[in-house]
Amino acid sequence: MTVSHNLDGAALDLELKGLIADVLGLDPEQAQTFGPETGLFGHLPELDSMAVAGLLTEMEDRLGIVIEDDDVDGEMLETYGGLRAFAEAKLGAR
Amino acid sequence: MISTWTPPAPEGTPAEAELLVAFDRGRDLRLLVCPAWFDEANKLRRFTLEVIRRLDRAGLDCLLPDLPGCNESLAPLPNQTLESWRAAMTAAAQGLRATHVLAIRAGALVAPPALPGWHYAAQSGPKLLRGMIRARTIAAREAGLAESSESLMALGRAEGLTLGGWAISAAMFAALENAEPALAPGQSDLAQSALGGPGLWLRAEPDEDARQADRLAARIVQSLAGGPA
């Protein structure tokens, strides 16, 4: 499951939205409509701490990054844009 | 369909029967199913049963025991260790006369090595702990408490730890930190990628997927017929 390729913006978008679709049980097309302001943790009742933990752990696997405790904050989890910006920063720092 | 088996009792205590779901028609092929653990067990329960129903129709007896301390088991979960679960699954395999094993996710950590079979999307101990610790730190942060993964890991090793509502003993915790699924002779991996969809343990809510259940059952039947898993 681990991928080590370099993700450009569009590929990262596809990967992240696909992952959220997997967690929420959405059709991939539905997740493609997510925008930067689409609310995640705190907006979607099914996205509880256990589901978010699963999401982050899967992100580590699929994007080949390591997410530390201190990385996880409200801003990063609140919207799709926040999560994407976080992933971009992590990938850029590798 | 609901039946019982008896795991080895700790010294000085009477042996207590545990429950299992059994599709037992006295056939030659008898598949022990080692379930996923903890939260993943809930997410995958229906999927597991759906796979079992398909295998039953394909001619296999299927035996799904509870891990002691989980599901319907009355055994105290904090008394369980990786070794006691391994011994329990081995006892289930012998008591139920299993000929094969299907281990699901972390179930691969306790699959009896004497049985041929399959590890579906095997999960390692460190990854299992990492996910559960992370869920706890996120929940703590939401509640305005500061808990670090490092301090929780130290606490888990020293005293045991409750993660996601599951009371994990210090012995279980320490063993999981180094537990990797290992394929015994005659066992092979069945990766999630073979099922053509995302793993159902990822879902925020328990769900099912008939096509994935079809594919997992078909891979097992094909493997039994001499094909690749």
Q: How are the SSEs ordered, and which strands pair?
A:
The complex is a heterodimer of chains A (94) and B (229).
Chain A (H helix, E strand, L loop, with lengths): L8 H16 L3 H5 L16 H15 L10 H5 L1 H13 L2
Chain B lengths: L1 E4 L12 E6 L6 E5 L3 H20 L3 E5 L16 H14 L4 E5 L12 E4 L4 H18 L6 H11 L1 E3 L2 E3 L1 H7 L10 E4 L19 H15 L5
Parallel strand pairs in B: 3-4, 3-5, 5-6, 6-9
Antiparallel strand pairs in B: 1-2, 2-4, 7-8
Task: Describe the protein.
The complex is a heterodimer of chains A (94) and B (229). Chain A starts with 8 loop residues before the first helix and ends with a helix. By secondary structure, chain A is mainly α. Chain A has one domain: ACP-like (Non-ribosomal Peptide Synthetase Peptidyl Carrier Protein, Chain A), CATH 1.10.1200.10. Chain A has helices at 9-24, 28-32, 49-63, 74-78, 80-92. Chain A has five helices and no strands. Chain B is of the alpha/beta class and 229 residues long. Chain B has two domains: 2-123 and 181-224, 3-Layer(aba) Sandwich (Rossmann fold), CATH 3.40.50; 135-179, no CATH class. Chain B contains six helices and nine strands. In chain B, β3 (30-34), α1 and β4 (61-65) form a beta-alpha-beta unit. In chain B, α1 packs across α6 and α4 packs across α5 (170-176). Chain B is globular, with a radius of gyration of 18 Å. The two termini of chain B are 28 Å apart.
Task: State the gist of this model.
The complex is a heterodimer of chains A (94) and B (229). Helices cover 57% and strands 0% of the residues of chain A. Chain A is mainly α and 94 residues long.
